[in-house]
């Protein structure tokens, strides 16, 4: 749903300002009556609405307007609003590791003291000044357990080893090839501490080896799920939430978080957002309510920074998730290097993958 600034202002005027409610906002600011939040839509957006947006509206009277947009659409819209000097959205959801590079678009949250539940309820490091961590996921190695009953793949070197682990492969072609390039370097023996700056020549040489064995270059999470049913795939890289959804829909699939790459989402308030108080109130509200966080994790396969929610998940449930304790084992992308090299990497990738 695309939010229109005029509609947002009309809704604010019609509903009026609301008093502060409990721990949901700063005591020195009045809540606006609406807040717009970008989501990726689909089942993920539905789970956010059910577990967080609707309860927030019930607690405060603030109407949440979800805006469904892809990552690229979100960033293009953010840049366009900044250039036009007319910001229509309140909260966007970029990667936590990219906040410094896009900080010119974002409200400075300082130490997040205006949202006290972050310090009280969330794991250390949740406040990132330009945004706050809200979801913990990763891109990881997945396989069909029926194809590898005696020995299970555990690394990207195993993914490249088509002799020991035969079968058709799937790889991502989403317009963001950073994970694929990193996986190729890991498969070639580069230690994680030496991944950046990426050795592109070495990465593409390694990709040349696996390319003949890739049956599906998937573009979306839905396609990466469907390929297990339609394409006789034995092994692929996937987002952990999509793999989790596939497994719980009956598709035989297993995975490892060894050598996984971070997919850590952030809530960020846009600089000049029309409803900044309601935006802070929502983020503050989100950081509490452990039952909602546990329910969201069970539905989507993503954990969150809420500490208490971990105690509500069983040991069996936790085995399928990236827990906050495991976050230090997940590989993070050098966002500064990425920002400086994005254009040339994309040009080289697009030429290689289409050849």
Describe what you observe in this structure.
By secondary structure, the protein is an alpha/beta fold. It folds into two domains: 5-136 and 264-324, D-Maltodextrin-Binding Protein, domain 2 (3-Layer(aba) Sandwich); 137-263 and 329-354, D-Maltodextrin-Binding Protein, domain 2 (3-Layer(aba) Sandwich). It is 39% helix and 17% strand. The chain has 13 helices and eight strands. It has helices spanning 5-15, 42-60, 71-84, 117-121, 156-160, 178-187, 200-210, 221-230, 240-248, 276-286, 290-300, 315-318, 335-354; strands at residues 34-39, 63-68, 91-92, 132-143, 168-172, 214-218, 233-239, 254-269. The protein has a six-stranded mixed sheet, sandwiched between helices. A two-stranded parallel sheet has the order 1-2. Strand 1 (34-39), helix 2 and strand 2 (63-68) form a beta-alpha-beta unit. The chain is globular.
Sequence-ordered SSE layout with sheet pairings:
Blueprint (H helix, E strand, L loop, with lengths): L4 H11 L18 E6 L2 H19 L2 E6 L2 H14 L6 E2 L24 H5 L10 E12 L12 H5 L7 E5 L5 H10 L12 H11 L3 E5 L2 H10 L2 E7 H9 L5 E16 L6 H11 L3 H11 L14 H4 L16 H20 L1
Parallel strand pairs: 1-2, 5-6, 5-7
Antiparallel strand pairs: 3-8, 4-7, 4-8
Helix pairs in contact: 2-11, 6-7, 8-9
- Write out the strand line-up for the largest beta sheet, numbering strands in chain order: 3-8-4-7-5-6
- H/E series: HEHEHEHEHEHHEHEHEHHHH
What spatial form do the alpha-carbon principal axes imply?
Answer: globular
Q: Count of helical segments?
A: 13
CATH class of the largest domain: Alpha Beta
Largest sheet: 6 strands, mixed
**Termini gap:** 37 Å
Number of strands: 8
Helix content: 25-40%
Question: Low-confidence segments, ≥5 residues, pLDDT <50?
Answer: 1-28
Mean pLDDT across every amino acid position? 89
